[in-house]
Amino acid sequence: MKKLFPYLLLNIIVSAVTTLAVLMAWDALHVREQRPVEPSSVQPTAAVVVLQPTPLPVDAVVIRVESVVGVGDVQNELVRLVREGSGDLPLEGWTLQDENGNKYTFPKVDFITGAIEVHTGSGPDTAVELHWGQTASVWQPGETVKVFDPQGVLRASYQIP
Question: What are the φ and ψ backbone dihedral angles of 67, each rounded to 5 degrees?
């Protein structure tokens, strides 16, 4: 046992030095997260500024209705939307409407690229598949699908063949 003691001690020292070196390197390379300050010690120094998203130009093409699939069959009916342009497009508050007053309001979802499908029926929502939760089909041949932004600006339309 006496012969192992120096090796165990050396192992402890090397482990401690290595851990300390890793922690110091991590601290030097990463910004420290600030801890919350107790409310009683906070002194108001500036007004809080709430940033509102900048509205898109009215003529900007940001979304397109590519197709409506399964018209008349609630189980298969869906509207396929395609992202035009680049960057994140927050869809929260956007609406998808038909000519009969049926309206789907988008939840908090960012449309980045590719396509999003809005299914008429029920199901679990994902980043690319949203579900309206209707029990009957909404879309009819000849009807126009309209997509409005939160300010009520028509952003896309599509006439169902």
Answer: -170, 165
Q: How confident is the model over 74-109, as pLDDT tens digits?
A: 999 999 999 998 888 999 999 999 999 999 999 999
The three-class DSSP label of residue 159 is strand
Task: Report the alpha-carbon distance of residue 138 to residue 157 in Å, rounded.
Answer: 16
The full length of the chain comes to 161
The closest alpha carbon to 53, from 151, 130, 128, 155, belongs to 151
The whole-chain average pLDDT of the chain stands at: 85
Residue 149 is encoded by which pair of tokens?
């932004």
Torsion, Cα of 98, 101, 107, 109 (10° steps): 20
CA distance 125 to 142: 28
pTM, two decimals, is: 0.65
